[in-house]
Amino acid sequence: MNFKGYRWRHRHRSWLATGQQVKEPVIRIALAGNPNSGKTSIFNAITGQHQRVGNYPGVTVEKKFGRIFYRNRILEVIDLPGTYSLSAYSLDEMVARDFLVNEKPDIVIDILDSTNLERHLYLLLQFQEMGVPLIGALNMADEAESKGLIIDVENLSQILGIPLVRTVGNKGEGIEELLTAALDLYNGRLSSSQRHLNYGVHVEEAHNQVIAALEQDEEFTKKYPAHWLAIKLLEEDPDAQKKVQQEHTKADTVLSVTESVKKNLTRQYQTEARNIVSEQRYAYIHGAIKEAVRQNPPTSPYDLTERIDRIVLHRFLGIPIFLGVMFLIYQFTFRLGNPLSDLIGNFFTLLGRAVHGWLPEGILQDLISNGIIGGVGSVIVFLPLVVLLMLGLAFLEDTGYMARAAFVMDKFFHLFGLHGRSFIPFMVATGCAVPGVMSARLLANPKDRIVTILVTPFMMCGAKAPVIAILTAAFFPEHSALVFWGVWMLSWLMAFCVALIFRRTLFRGEQTPFVMELPPYRLPTLQTILLHMWQKAREYLKKAGTIILAASIVIWFLFTFPHSKANDTGVGSVCQSEILAPAAQGGSYAVRIGRAVEPVLKLAGFDWKLGVALFAGVAAKEVIISTLGILYGIENAAAPAANGTSNLNIRDLLRNDPDYSRASGLALIIFVLFYTPCLATLAMIKKELGSWKWPLFEAGYTLTFAFLLAIASFQLGKLLLV
Amino acid sequence: MTNTNFPKKSVLTLDKLAPGSHFCIQRIRAHGEVGQRLLDMGFIRNATGQVLREALFRDPIEVILNGSRISLRRSEARLIEVILIS
Ligand SMILES: Nc1nc2c(ncn2[C@@H]2O[C@H](COP(=O)(O)OP(=O)(O)O)[C@@H](O)[C@H]2O)c(=O)[nH]1
Ligand SMILES: [Mg+2]
To answer: Which range of residues forms the domain containing residue B51?
Structure first.
């Protein structure tokens, strides 16, 4: 807080007093470190509200950066993804590494958890090996001190050859010193040694041989530090091998030299080269810690985290507790979010009507009141759910509980080729698939993430549930509760089966290791959580919002055109006039499409009315029932279109319609459950997976899958149900 | 893919240990990504740790190593040769 005040004044003084632009180049500072080291806290403490979120080129890893004005310089701070190491196996590691190699930031600050220096210094050494201008932030200093760890910062810094600064990220302590050190290092007033630890005679010799081979290509070593790449080659790093193969002029020599020295090492040490490298790094770290860190008095391993874990990770209590926690998050999101969503929905309906009244009649009136206002409304309606849910999940993530959730759920999900964390998107999607898809970010492995995203929309969300409830009541009045429950179970079962099929076919390949840290429990700060919430809201509106809006207008177009004068009768309800008018004459494109595909629909026992209603349901599932209502012509200008009485009528109408048997009813229920997700979900998929390919694939495969299932259940139902 | 050297007769591996046991790592048999991840997490020769607990179906397990809690699947623990300390 102190620091923030300082910076704030400082900023203003500089801008106002000098009133001139700064001409020196922007200083680019990358923040790196292990997950849960406090990177985001420090990033927030430095940049405050001045942050942006983007993506790293070509991948869907989130890139956070922010610019601040500090001591007459512009600093650009980039929050790199958290990694345990710089090996090239995970996407996050690749991103962090490529950023350092290709973008060459001016300063790299490695955030270290002082309570666990052993593991955190391991990453620091790897940065040092890369030869980047490095500073270490000894974060969580408060926690370390209360645990009785006494770190001789000066001494440790000397041993490592790297400037170190004590920080407490969530309180903003030490940020000033950190930035000062960064500027000093930038200006050459401070030095950061690029010397590296000694790996022992044999490894050093091998290392030098590989360096010599690499240095045959000067262009190559200009691009990639030879020293670093040689170590990576000894570690059998696949990305380093690829880089050599593709870009080094003497790739064959380099690789064969590497192979032969590795063989020698293995013979001498009785273990692979990369094990020796890791062992040496750890030995060096142990030495450094022994010299510079005192433990006073030794802590008992039964600290608070262990005490909590004894309950939370209890063999039998673990899963019930997890389900309870999810239930709370779920209640929090939907109890609080649904009324807000309804409020927003009603507001936009009223606004649409009001605007409809003000504007002169005509196509423009309809476009604005229904197409645009309706479209914007359908974007904002989801906002409370997205924001609240992200808030809940951020809380779980920042406290450290999320890793525990993965721990207790992993066995079950692993059977279906998924990761323990996949449970969360599934669970969330039973409320709404839009935040469900978004929460799949928790999955680090891209394949896990894609598969999870592709199947989560199968869950029975809050919009599908009432539609299916009405359909079950219409077609299975005696057993509606049982059928509803069965359908709900079916949604989970199918999601798992399809996930397994995907994992075995399109998304084969090695599963990522489950090896991960269960971080100590920590309380996140309010500032972090609020910032997070604000970012998610903005991101949702900007990225998904534009797509949803555009798609809503397209749907409006299909239901409105071709337009005829007779439609402009100013029907009371927005919802009704939107679909009813042209439909009544069998004229809109949507209806024409419905009639055209009727012969195919017949296979599943559907007629064109259902076709049109289901098509409208792609805009939003709730619309299925109201569209059917309109198509039946049960509405009149006076009656409200939504729920209540008209739903009752629809139920009876469906039940008594001679066109539909119970078999076609069953097919319809199954089709609604599994077919193409709503536009908002598709837009979210595009946003999360970064390419149009995925929402198109999603729409196509779910449609095919649902239709095949519907045909099967119709044909079977004809035999079994009377 | 992960496990090339077939276990010699009756080498003790981490997955065989009951919660509460202290162990000392002898060798890592894992290759590729799992191997790298284990090394990065501090599973190296002569490191000592303790098995803390296991999940409902006895998988995954949690160990404490160098002061950090690490969870891993039993199939991954099988790639770590250990000796029992107590
Ligand atoms: N006690 C303490 N907690 C901290 C400190 N820095 C961050 N935290 C907390 O540690 C947790 C993880 O921090 P975060 O910034 O999200 O870590 P990241 O995963 O590296 O981005 C959050 O609950 C923070 O509030 C610190 O210096 N001391
Ligand atoms: Mg973070």
So the answer is: 12-85
Question: Per residue in A72-90, pLDDT tens?
Answer: 899 999 999 889 988 888 7
Specify whether A156 is located in the same domain as A214.
no
Give a yes or no: residue A543 inside a domain.
no
Q: Output the pLDDT for position A574.
A: 39
Which residues contact residue A625 at a Cβ distance below 8 angstroms, ignoring those fewer than 6 apart?
A: A466, A467, A470, A613, A647, A650
**Do A135 and A172 fall within a single domain?**
yes
Return the structure tokens found at A383: 């906002």
Q: Is A201 helix (H, G, I), strand (E, B) or coil?
A: helix
Cis peptide before A695 (omega within 30 of 0): no
Residue A553: per-residue pLDDT:
79
Which protein residue's CA is at the shortest distance from atom 28 of ligand 1?
Answer: A140
Whether A433 is in a domain gets the answer no
| Separation of first and last alpha carbons in chain A | 72
Q: Is residue A643 part of a domain?
A: yes
B70 membership: H or E segment, kind and range:
strand B68-72
Contacts by A380-384 with C-beta closer than 8 Å and gap 24+?
A: A380/A344, A380/A348, A380/A541, A380/A545, A381/A341, A381/A344, A381/A345, A381/A348, A382/A341, A382/A432, A382/A434, A382/A435, A382/A540, A382/A680, A383/A341, A383/A344, A383/A537, A383/A540, A383/A541, A384/A336, A384/A337, A384/A340, A384/A341, A384/A344
**Boundary of a domain, candidates A243, A272, A295:** A295
Q: What is the pTM of this model?
A: 0.80
Do A146 and A290 lie in a common domain? Answer: no
Residue at B44 is within a domain:
yes
Residues A157 and A283 placed together within one structural domain of the fold: no
CB A39 near ligand 1, within 6 Å: yes
DSSP-assigned letter for residue A151 = E
Residue type, B13: T
In the reported structure, the alpha carbon of residue A441 is separated from the centroid of ligand 2 by a whole-number distance in angstroms of 13
Q: Is the CB of A400 under 6 A from ligand 1?
A: no
> Containing domain of residue A107, as a range?
3-187
Q: Which helix (H) or strand (E) holds B68?
A: strand B68-72
Ligand that lies nearest to the alpha carbon of residue A42, given by its number in the listed order = 1
CATH number at residue A275: 1.10.287.1770
- Pick B40's closest partner by Cβ from A87, A316, A318: A87
Measured in degrees and rounded to the nearest 5, phi and psi for residue B26 equal -100, -40
Please count the residue pairs, one from chain A and one from chain B, whose beta carbons lie less than 8 angstroms apart: 119
- A117 and A213 part of one domain: no
Residues A178 and A91 in one domain: yes
Residue A296's nearest CA partner among A154, A121, A144, A166 is A144
Reported confidence tier of residue B16, pLDDT bands at 50, 70, 90 = very high
How many residues appear in chain A?
A: 722
Name residue B65's amino acid. Answer: L
pLDDT tens-place string over residues A98-145:
999 889 999 999 999 999 998 899 999 999 988 899 999 999 999 999
To 10 degrees, the CA torsion angle through A637, A643, A649, A653?
A: 100
Structure tokens at A475: 């077609």
The pLDDT of residue A639 is above 60: no
The half-sphere exposure of A279 on its side-chain side, counting CA atoms within 13 A, is 17
Query: Distance from the CA of A343 to the center of ligand 1, in angstroms?
Result: 36
A23 and A68 in a common domain: yes
- Contact A111/A38 with Cβ under 8 angstroms? yes
Q: Which of A315, A512, A518 shows the shortest C-beta gap to B33?
A: A512
Question: Region B47-54: what's the mean pLDDT?
Answer: 93
Domain's final residue, options A245, A265, A295: A295
CB distance A168 to ligand 1 below 6 Å: yes
Answer yes or no: do A691 and A654 share one domain. yes
- Ligand 1: atom nearest CA of A141 is 27
- CA-to-CA distance for A457 and A3, rounded, in angstroms? 45
A62 Cβ closer than 6 Å to some ligand 1 atom? no
